């Protein structure tokens, strides 16, 4: 047998078919050419200056809503979509967030719960990257417990009037359309809100130390008047936003491992050439123990992601199973990134290397789409039948 490949020591690539590997290669090449050379600078400046051009380019490679069918979407499998998320996040979690929020949250909400008119109006433009979408669920006082949201919508004749405030909204100020969740007399409902609607403003959130190459904004809704047809007709209640979040979490199960892979590969390259005490630091047992643990966790995580992806493609993925993936893979990814940072020593804290950027990005990934604690409680409930959320 030939020696194992350090980049794929368990031979997991053999478990993907040619089309899956082709999607991976396309996204990997796109990231290497169009984002990787610039992203450290965007991160340092705390902006994504070419987000609109980038969105058009992402549209051209079919990245937006790629796992959705029709309306200009690529109709890819769950595993193909997962591999794309991994490659985007191997570049930067902010890039993967742009793609996830667009495809898995905003487009998915319209695709799953929207009227035919809403789908026709928004999905083709969003798939092409001509319109960016955002997803407003979290509020200043309601994060892990979104069911307690205060934002509300009242009927005024046939119109709706929305009032409230959403916080930490990815893509907010660059979006053309916001999917906003609000309480109504009938229960929580989703609204498709063009962002030029009077009464809606989207101030950016500054001073982030994480996901700096990603736009994060508030959505302030002050007497926003919408026509009757702005409501998503297909769902009433928290099942709406929670179903969308399940989609985006699935992408994170894969994506987080991309950040981990970049850090591990950076540390391996670094340790091979960095010498201390007369030899490469890769030759010290303590460094090798770190590499062994990181590789074991990265490739176990990949097997878990692939297992969940195959179940999703078979229509058998339960949301609680996604919690296993989100909890484990983000937790292990952040650990891999932090350990890689130690191997780079002082260089580990420099933006000259991608490692610290990924470490701080994953702090957001640990928190959004359900914190680690929430996923722990979901799994706890699934195992015991007892709810420990309150
Ligand atoms: P809280 O809910 O206040 O939680 C604080 C801590 O308490 C956490 O550790 C939490 O796990 C813990 N906790 C809470 N309840 C319990 C409990 N019952 N038992 C044990 N521990 C508990 N939201 C959107 O709607 N759209 C977006 O596009 C979006 N993008 C984001 C982008 C970034 C960069 C970030 C950082 C966040 C984004 N979010 C978005 C918001 C994100 O989903 C929330 O931050 C997340 O749900 C957690 O809510 P919170 O920050 O209010 O924390």
UniProtKB/TrEMBL annotation:
<dbReference type="Pfam" id="PF02771">
    <property type="entry name" value="Acyl-CoA_dh_N"/>
</dbReference>
<keyword id="KW-0809">Transit peptide</keyword>
<dbReference type="InterPro" id="IPR009075">
    <property type="entry name" value="AcylCo_DH/oxidase_C"/>
</dbReference>
<dbReference type="InterPro" id="IPR006091">
    <property type="entry name" value="Acyl-CoA_Oxase/DH_mid-dom"/>
</dbReference>
<dbReference type="Pfam" id="PF00441">
    <property type="entry name" value="Acyl-CoA_dh_1"/>
</dbReference>
<dbReference type="InterPro" id="IPR036250">
    <property type="entry name" value="AcylCo_DH-like_C"/>
</dbReference>
<dbReference type="GO" id="GO:0050660">
    <property type="term" value="F:flavin adenine dinucleotide binding"/>
</dbReference>
<dbReference type="GO" id="GO:0000062">
    <property type="term" value="F:fatty-acyl-CoA binding"/>
</dbReference>
<keyword id="KW-0560">Oxidoreductase</keyword>
<comment type="similarity">
    <text>Belongs to the acyl-CoA dehydrogenase family.</text>
</comment>
<keyword id="KW-0274">FAD</keyword>
<dbReference type="Pfam" id="PF02770">
    <property type="entry name" value="Acyl-CoA_dh_M"/>
</dbReference>
<protein>
    <submittedName>
        <fullName>Acyl-CoA dehydrogenase family protein</fullName>
    </submittedName>
</protein>
<dbReference type="InterPro" id="IPR037069">
    <property type="entry name" value="AcylCoA_DH/ox_N_sf"/>
</dbReference>
<dbReference type="InterPro" id="IPR052033">
    <property type="entry name" value="Glutaryl-CoA_DH_mitochondrial"/>
</dbReference>
<dbReference type="InterPro" id="IPR046373">
    <property type="entry name" value="Acyl-CoA_Oxase/DH_mid-dom_sf"/>
</dbReference>
<dbReference type="GO" id="GO:0004361">
    <property type="term" value="F:glutaryl-CoA dehydrogenase activity"/>
</dbReference>
<dbReference type="GO" id="GO:0033539">
    <property type="term" value="P:fatty acid beta-oxidation using acyl-CoA dehydrogenase"/>
</dbReference>
<feature type="domain" description="Acyl-CoA dehydrogenase/oxidase C-terminal">
    <location>
        <begin position="237"/>
        <end position="383"/>
    </location>
</feature>
<dbReference type="InterPro" id="IPR013786">
    <property type="entry name" value="AcylCoA_DH/ox_N"/>
</dbReference>
<feature type="domain" description="Acyl-CoA dehydrogenase/oxidase N-terminal">
    <location>
        <begin position="18"/>
        <end position="130"/>
    </location>
</feature>
<dbReference type="GO" id="GO:0046949">
    <property type="term" value="P:fatty-acyl-CoA biosynthetic process"/>
</dbReference>
<dbReference type="InterPro" id="IPR009100">
    <property type="entry name" value="AcylCoA_DH/oxidase_NM_dom_sf"/>
</dbReference>
<keyword id="KW-0285">Flavoprotein</keyword>
<feature type="domain" description="Acyl-CoA oxidase/dehydrogenase middle">
    <location>
        <begin position="134"/>
        <end position="224"/>
    </location>
</feature>
């Amino acid at each position: 047998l030939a020696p194992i490949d350090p980049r794929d020591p368990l031979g997991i690539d053999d478990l993907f078919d040619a089309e899956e590997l082709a999607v991976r290669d396309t996204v990997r090449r796109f990231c290497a050419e169009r984002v990787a050379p610039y992203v450290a600078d965007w991160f340092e400046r705390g902006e994504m200056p070419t987000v609109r051009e980038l969105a058009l380019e992402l549209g051209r490679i079919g990245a937006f809503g790629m796992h959705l069918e029709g309306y200009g979407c690529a109709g890819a499998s769950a595993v193909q979509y997962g591999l794309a998320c991994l490659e985007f996040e191997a570049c930067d979690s902010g890039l993967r967030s742009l793609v996830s929020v667009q495809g898995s949250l905003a487009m998915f909400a319209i695709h799953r719960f929207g009227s035919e008119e809403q789908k026709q109006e928004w999905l083709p433009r969003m798939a092409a990257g001509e319109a960016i979408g955002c997803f407003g669920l979290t509020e200043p006082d309601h994060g892990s417990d979104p069911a307690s949201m205060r934002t509300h919508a009242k009927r005024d004749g046939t119109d709706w009037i929305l009032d409230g405030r959403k916080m930490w909204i990815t893509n907010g100020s660059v979006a053309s359309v916001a999917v906003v969740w609000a309480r109504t007399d009938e229960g929580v409902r989703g609204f498709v809100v063009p962002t030029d609607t009077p009464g809606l403003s989207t101030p950016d959130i500054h001073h982030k130390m994480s996901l700096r190459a990603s736009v994060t904004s508030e959505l302030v809704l002050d007497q926003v008047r919408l026509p009757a047809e702005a409501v998503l007709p297909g769902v009433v209640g928290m099942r709406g936003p929670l179903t969308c979040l399940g989609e985006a979490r699935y992408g994170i199960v894969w994506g987080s491992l991309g950040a981990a892979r970049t850090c591990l590969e950076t540390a391996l390259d670094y340790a091979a050439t960095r010498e201390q005490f007369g030899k490469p630091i890769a030759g010290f047992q303590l460094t090798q123990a770190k590499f062994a643990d990181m590789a074991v966790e990265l490739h176990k995580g990949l097997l878990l992601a692939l297992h969940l992806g195959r179940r999703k493609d078979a229509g058998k993925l339960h949301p609680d199973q996604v919690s296993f993936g989100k909890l484990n893979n983000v937790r292990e990814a952040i650990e891999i990134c932090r350990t890689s940072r130690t191997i780079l020593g002082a260089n580990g804290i420099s933006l000259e290397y991608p490692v610290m950027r990924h470490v701080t990005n994953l702090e957001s990934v640990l928190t959004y789409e359900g914190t680690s604690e929430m996923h722990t409680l979901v799994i706890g409930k699934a195992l015991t039948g007892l709810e420990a959320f309150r």
